[in-house]
Amino acid sequence: MNVYNDLDCFFLGYEDNTLISFLCAFFPGRKEVEFNGFTHPEHRRQGHFTLLVEQAICVYTAYPFYQALFQREQNSQSGLSYLQKRYPELDRSEYVMVLEKQHWMNKEHIGTLELVEAQNKEDTIAVISDSFEEDREESSHTLEYLLSQADRKTFLYRFEDKALGVLNAAMEDGVWELHGVGIIHAYRNKGMGRRMLSLAFDYLFNEAEAIQLEVDSENPPALALYQKLGFRTTSRVDYHRLIL
Q1: Is residue 207 scored above 70 in pLDDT?
Q2: What H or E segment, with its residue span, contains residue 180?
Q3: How many domains does the chain have?
Q4: Beta bridge partners of 10
Q5: For the chain, which terminal residue's Cβ has fewer other Cβ atoms within 10 angstroms, N or C?
Q6: What 3-state class would DSSP assign to 199?
């Protein structure tokens, strides 16, 4: 989810009218920006990508970002060499995980899962605000964006009639991509995340053969939960930090 749709997110480097380097920016939240990019092998180590980074930072310093994170896929040796030299501080890693329908068997049907619509928006905003420690205005903005996307579904989880969980899923190339999985603080470490996900997977596997998600290395409980549910890790992305 790109929360700043009006910001420039592509920076291109040319030499003799030929594209040799590019940088792409992504805005997953209002406080940090993520960078990834590429420079043609014949033009590396000449400062082209660094120049694009400097141009991007000049644009984004007017916004409330406190850090930039550079993405590096685990097999990118050229990316590792560049980041170790320029931005060596590793902020965290992110694991891409996949669960195939053939490996899913739900043994729990506890609580209820609702598609978010007008009648349960206020409950959903409250859950987003608590789960992700956002103020109500920011949570409302997040939800409005999610509901405006035709390829997304947003769910609210209730247990004993109390709204306590939220998640959303986006269809991409026939695979559901899971995002924004959250449980309010008072109900964490009580199995509610597993119960919510179990109901969600039953729903989502009616329309796809696989579910994919990304989980942060700074969230070991979530990583352990997804592994128990049958997810397998397919790749890893490292994030190197630049404080703005």
Answers
A1: yes
A2: strand 175-183
A3: 2
A4: 24
A5: C
A6: helix
